[in-house]
Amino acid sequence: MKHSFELEQDIMSCWGVVEDLDALFDGVMDKNLSQDAIANIVLGLKELYDLKFQKLFSTFEKALKETPLA
User: Fold this and answer.
1) What is the C-alpha to C-alpha distance for residues 61 and 65, in angstroms, rounded to an integer?
2) What is the pLDDT of residues 10-58, one digit of tens each?
3) What global pTM score does this model have?
4) In this structure, are residues 24 and 38 in contact, taking their beta carbons and an 8 Å threshold?
């Protein structure tokens, strides 16, 4: 059951992409960010969420292994 809790936490962590995109949107609208700044932020978000989703999938696989089949 340990991995089931971790799975829930990892899923919730991935929902952060919505908040991060809101912050990017606000930055674009309020701060007149340059194209380079926007590209760097988007690239950083892509790398960050690639790591988060890899971790999520790994936790999912562990949770599946500990869950008995019915």
Assistant:
1) 6
2) 889 888 899 999 999 998 898 888 999 999 999 999 999 999 999 999 9
3) 0.76
4) yes
